[in-house]
Structure formats: C-alpha cells, structure tokens
Amino acid sequence: MNGNTPYIVVNDLQKHYKGGAIRALDGIDFSINRGEVVVIIGPSGSGKSTFLRSLNLLEIPTHGDIIVNGTNIIEKNVNIDEHRQKMCMVFQHFNLFPHMTVLKNMTLAPVKLLKKPQAEVETKALNLLKRVGLSDRAYAYPDQLSGGQKQRVAIVRALMMEPDVMLFDEPTSALDPEMVGEVLEVMKELASDGMTMVVVTHEMGFAREVGSRVIFMDDGRILEQGSPADIFGNPQNPRLKDFLSKVL
Amino acid sequence: MATYFAELKNDFILNFIDEGRWRWLWEGLGNTLIITFVALLMGLAIGIVIAAVRSTFDKNRESMEMHKGFGYYVLKLSNAICHLYLTVIRGTPVVVQLLIMYFIVFATSRDSLMVAMIAFGINSGAYVAEILRGGIMSIDNGQFEAGRSLGFNYIQTMIYIIIPQVFKNVLPVLCNEFIVLLKETSVAGYVGIVDLTKAGDLIRGRTFSAFMPLIAVALIYLIMVVILTALVGVLERRLRKNER
Q1: How high is the ipTM of this complex?
Q2: Does B10 fall in a domain?
Q3: Fewer CB within 10 Å, N side or C side of chain A?
C-alpha cells in the first residue's frame, strides 16, 4: 500500500522449456507503479506474452519472484485466485463466454466471487456498457457481436472486478483494422482515469501516445526501456533500431 | 402363394403363440432394457468421475508441479489408475469382460442379471469417460484462462464456464453411446441371462425354426434403435437452435 514502492516487482523471472534448452524468459527484472501504463513491444517470439501471462501465473515461471503489493505470488501458500481478481486480463481472442449474454458475461464473476447483489452488479454493468457505447448489446450473445464490440465487452467484463491492474495481451491483434480504433479509444480512456496497465501490443501509435514507459523485449530479455520519446526518438540498442525500422 | 402364407402363419403360431412363447421375447426385452438402463447410469457415474480426474490432472499438471504437494501425488496416482482402467476395458472384448465378471470376480454370486449390469456398466464407463474428457478438452483453452484470470478457481471455472459448453457438445454423442450399449447387451446370454437375443435363440432351439424368432429379434432391436436415433436427432436440432 506504500505509495513509494512499486505495485508489482519482478526479480530475475525465467521460464524454461525442455529442461532449460529453450528460455522463453531469460531473467526479467521489472517493476510498475500504480497509475503507470507500461507498453511492451518486441518481435513475435520475444517472450512478451509469456511475460505478461506470468504476471497472473497463467504461465508458470521456472524461476524468479513476482511481488504484487508486497506479496510474492510464487509462494506456495498464496491464494492465486484472490490475486487474479485484482489483476484482470484482456486477451487477444477476447475469450468471452459464448453461452452467456453480454450482461451475464460481466456479472458472473462479481456476483459469484465478490458476492455482490445481482441488481447492483447489473446496474454497474449497464453503466459500463453505456460508457463503451454498447448499451443496446447487453442481452446479445458474443457471437452476435463484431470483434471490436467483443473486445470492448471483454475490457468492461474485467473492469467489473474493479482490478488494481489490467493486463492486455495484444488486445487489437485479432481485430479487423477498422475496429482497432474503438478498442484503443477505450484503453486510452482507462489510462487517463489512472488505471495501472501492462499492455503487450504492436500498436506503436498507442505506445507512443499513452505509454508512460515502453519496454522492448527480445529473446526473453528486456533489451531497452524508457519513455516513449526516448524509445521511439532515440533508440540505443541495435535490435530495437532494427525492429523500429521494420514496424514504423 | 396361398400355401406360402399358410406356412408363414403356421410358423408364426408355432414360434410365438404355442405355449405362449412370445412371453420369452417380452421377458427378454425387459432384461435387455433393464441391463442397458442400469449399465447406462453406472457408466455415466464412472465416466464422470474418471473424466474429472483425468482432465483435472491434464489441466493442472503444470501449476501443481510448481509446488509438489500431497494433492499432486494423489491426483497423479488416481490418473494412472484411471488410465489403466481405460486401457484394459477398451482393449478387451465386452464378452470376455462379462465372462470374467461372472465366472471369476463374482464366482460366488448366481445373480447373473446383477453381474451383467455391473460388467456392462464398467465397460460403458470407460467410453463415457473418454467422450466427456474429449468434450472438456475440445473447449478452447482461452475459456479456462478467461475464467481463471477473473479469479475463479479451477472447480468454479469448470462449473460455471466449461461444463455448460461441454454438455451441449457431448449430449448427442452420449446418446449414441447409449444406443451402442443397447445392442452390446445382446451377449448377456453367455452368462445364462435370457435377454432379447437369447430369448429368440431359445425359441429357435425349441421349434427348430430359425427364421421367425431371429428376424423378430432383429426387428425389435432395429425399431428401438431407429426410435432412439430419431430422438437424438431431435435433441441435436434443439441444442443447435439454442446456440447463438
């Protein structure tokens, strides 16, 4: 809770496959403060998604510490489910529950896990849907929505848990180009509301505009990090330079 | 032509009416149905437990290997036992299993009907388990991850998110397993049960006229299977309609 210590601290995080022959993560040190928006960029296969998914233990790291709000969530006696309620995730492929309406998708977790009354939760869900321009889709099923709409629902579904931090795993990569904007708009709004966010993305425009810090990863390591202005304006690492020359 | 029909009529009377032989078929059908029904319930119960163990192990293996606790070893052992069960049951003919049950495992019991129910139940359980496990594994892993990332634990994720989707997918396949089971019970005669097949065969042995009783038995099976298949079709269309 101390305002001066970072909200998440990661020490020497490693993830090996095949007994160490493949190192998806090769010693990551990282921290994020409350209210920060950290954008992770890098070529595919660089370990960005693996790292992000380690933060809520969807990937099990081989070695290292992940200290969230003072608790090392790698420890055996930690209830990871409680931690995940505070670190919600938005996925590349949305992962909405296809057998439930939009509203049910949003209310399930707060009603079942936070034991909040259904009526209160529904009111909140409808308000959030209004904020992202989907008031009229509350009773639709996921298959009836466009990709951009699905992702906006996925974001507000995560918001229903009132998380302390939100993790975005390439949230716009599976979208048709004309729908990317509407999702980024919602994310920008979240950032300006002070949400702590870790975003893995290929949207360099978003990284430059919204990121408080940009991290460049390759080969399971953080090769360079800094303000968007430094990373995009004055890159140092040759691989970052090479990467930027290809994507910009 | 007329003599042919007269012969057919005599044949019919000889095989079904004389000495009330139709009652054998009726009782045989009753035994076939009761064996199938009880075996189905048993198979479902066994199948659900086995599928739960196997998919829990598959889905949680990695996170449990992080801290190898007591639960990990219990689950690993249970999984190994289930695997052995599936291999043995699916790798041997059901008639052989029935004979082993009757003459070895339950050698002291003369209640062949009960032994048959258990044997077919244990057999069916293996197939049901694999149908259910296949259904669970066919759900996109993203659904598990979405559930877990919201803070649901493994069991809650299964109950609220995975099982409802699995149920829709596997219900028609389970019904087909039921139809297969119905036909498989026709080997119950091996342990002295008068099921539908055995009843027809007994009549044949008594009247020395094979055509009527055996065709009658085949027709009864066929009618039951056709009706059940039609019901599964209705069910499938119903489920698809609800799908969004």
Answers
A1: 0.91
A2: no
A3: N
